[in-house]
Amino acid sequence: MSDIETLGELLSKQLKLTIEIDDKLFFKKRIYNPIEKGEARLIALRSSLIPEKRFHIQLDEIVLFICTDFIEIKFDIPLDYFHLSELNSRNELLEIELLKIFFGQLKSIGIDEVHFGIFSEFEKDEGFNYSWKNIYRIISNQENYFKLDI
Predict the structure, then answer these.
(1) DSSP strand E in 6-112: where?
(2) For residue 50, which of 117, 123, 114, 128 has the smallest C-alpha distance?
(3) Which of 53, 73, 80 has its CA nearest to residue 144?
(4) Rounded to whole angstroms, how far apart are CA atoms 90 and 2?
(5) Which of left, alpha, beta for 127 (phi over 0: left; psi -120 to 50: alpha)?
């Protein structure tokens, strides 16, 4: 079984979703979940720009970029960092229904913290590779950054 099929099987079980797999080269496949709570699309990425990004999974309004040693989250809906930060400071961020559902999905695959920041704020070093160690080192030193334990 290929890496993408193994990941698809795992995500289907843990997230209780039917997963459509597209490896962009050889095949497309659907992994059905009998408890199905929805669908997601898992796509293999082959990028010379950021080779550490290996897969992308499209959930409803959220895309997860699965990198070598971390997952990057992109929301397909407009979110204001400063509003999220304010809600977090009042301990109200986990009360937003979309985020509550999404964070529940993340917990089901073993993720227990999410880091928020304004991604475009930081400059990459010479020879930068897209690893969590490098991303965290840079983003955690930014003024607009917070960590949320889910």
Answers:
(1) 18-22, 28-31, 39-44, 53-58, 62-67, 71-75
(2) 128
(3) 80
(4) 44
(5) left
The pTM score is 0.83
pLDDT above 70: percentage of residues in the chain: 91
What are 39's strand-pairing partners?
18
Length of the chain: 150
**Could you report the per-residue pLDDT of 24-44, keeping only the tens digit for each?**
776 688 887 777 678 999 999
Could you tell me if 81 and 93 are in contact, meaning their C-beta atoms sit under 8 angstroms apart?
Answer: no
Structure tokens at 4: 């993408």
- What's the Cα-to-Cα distance from 28 to each of 23, 37, 149, 150, rounded to whole Å? 7, 21, 35, 33
Dihedral sign of CA atoms 129, 125, 114, 80 in order: negative
Q: What is the C-alpha separation between 91 and 60, in angstroms, rounded?
A: 25
Nearest one of 53, 51, 52, 55 to 41, comparing CA atoms:
55
Q: Encode pLDDT of 97-130 as tens digits.
A: 989 989 998 999 999 999 998 866 555 666 678 8
Q: Which two tokens stand for residue 148?
A: 């949320």
Listed in sequence order, the residues at least 6 apart from 46 whose beta carbon sits closer than 8 Å to its beta carbon are 24
Question: Which position has the token pair 């985020």?
Answer: 99
